[in-house]
Design brief:
10 strands; binds zinc ion; alpha/beta; binds 5'-O-[(R)-(carboxyoxy)(hydroxy)phosphoryl]adenosine
Length: 333
């Protein structure tokens, strides 16, 4: 079954073609990062307009790259929630128009379901259940995943998402946008123990997160007048985030007795986070899956994979679903 995936929830226009929801034939993304770097963040209307410019060309490019024709597509999956409404509407309208034209089902996909499917794309041998840490620009959540559509939330952030914290810290350090990759790079030349930043472990037994305190603590340290290099500050800040994320993930694994963990979302591209989780998992005899960079940041392959799984599980295509700006991920049960 040939599945077309479309992702336009934020500032990346992405189109992918997958065979049976597992084999990636093409996964192409037109990034707007240079454009939004000029304003230090995503300007929603600018993002939406660029999706309008890119989307059809990208669909044509991907179909031609695979030496296929539009009518050979069997299923279309598109991100319809959560995200920037104007951006989502471009992808959803394109998916519906294509679905109507070729008379194929269109499956609306929750963006986080897509991120979670990336781990299964990266390692199809990953067995259920497993614990998944979803870390992106807008979300930081721990899920107990029982099947592609069943699971429950173990914890989530009470304030900032990890990616948001990276982006804000990078701005404080004058590193620019997007912050995560720039902090990752700067931290390689820094000392993670150059000074101390707090960790919010919250109350005993909690698997929630909080990153606003560490962000404020970094700001105070930078304002204190005590000399500090950008590399050291990046390394100390990254260590504070990586420490909490990795300890929580392995804690969740121990507490549930599930010896399989996965990470996904843009922040899962962080080299220190990947290394730490791998190291801790190996020491505890836990199987850890971290998707490659191309499947961590926003991409349409993960959306196609999630849409295909949902279709296999009985989801019915529709041409009348809406876009939704904000919706927490809710499992079937
Ligand atoms: O999943 P994603 O591409 O978009 C959302 O759904 O939000 O995640 C984007 C976030 C941004 O905050 C970005 O700074 C962060 O992922 N990010 C990173 C790295 N690469 C991207 N954070 C830390 N280290 C990285 N290498
Ligand atoms: Zn994302």
């Amino acid at each position: 079954m040939l599945v077309l995936g479309i992702e336009t929830s934020c500032d990346d226009t992405s189109v992918a073609l997958l065979e049976d929801g597992r084999r990636i034939l093409a996964n192409r993304t037109a990034s707007q990062v240079d454009l939004h770097a000029l304003t230090g963040g995503v300007v929603p209307e600018v993002a939406a307009r660029h999706h309008v410019e890119q989307i059809i060309a990208l669909v044509e490019y991907v179909v031609r790259e695979c030496a296929l024709r539009l009518h050979q597509i069997d299923l279309i999956a598109v991100t319809n929630r959560p995200g920037l409404v104007g951006s989502l509407m471009v992808g959803v309208s394109t998916a519906k128009a294509l679905g109507w034209m070729i008379q194929r089902p269109v499956i609306p996909v929750h963006h986080l379901m897509g991120h979670m499917a990336a781990a299964r794309l990266a390692d199809p041998s990953l067995e259920y259940p497993y614990i998944c840490l979803v870390v992106s620009g807008g979300h930081t959540e721990l899920h107990h995943v029982l099947s592609p559509i069943h699971g429950h939330v173990l914890g989530r952030t009470r304030d900032d998402a990890a990616g948001e914290a990276f982006d804000k810290a990078a701005r404080m350090l004058g590193l620019g946008y997007p912050g995560g990759p720039l902090i990752d790079r700067a931290a390689r030349d820094g000392r993670a123990n150059a000074f101390a930043l707090p960790r919010a472990w919250l109350e005993e037994g909690s698997l929630d997160f909080s990153f606003s305190g560490v962000k404020t603590a970094l700001w105070r340290r930078l304002q204190s007048g005590e000399p500090v290099t950008v590399a050291d500050a990046a390394a100390v800040f990254q260590e504070a985030i990586v420490d909490v994320l990795s300890v929580r993930l392995l804690d969740a694994s121990a507490r549930t007795g599930v010896a399989r963990v996965a990470i996904c979302g843009g922040v899962a591209a962080n080299s220190a986070l990947k290394a730490r989780i791998q190291e801790m998992a190996t020491a505890r005899g836990v199987h850890a899956v971290a998707p490659p960079l191309s499947l961590c940041t926003d991409n349409a392959a993960m959306i196609a994979a999630a849409g295909w799984e949902q279709y296999q599980a009985g989801a019915v295509g529709s041409l009348s679903f809406d876009v939704i700006a904000s919706e927490a991920l809710s499992w079937s049960g």
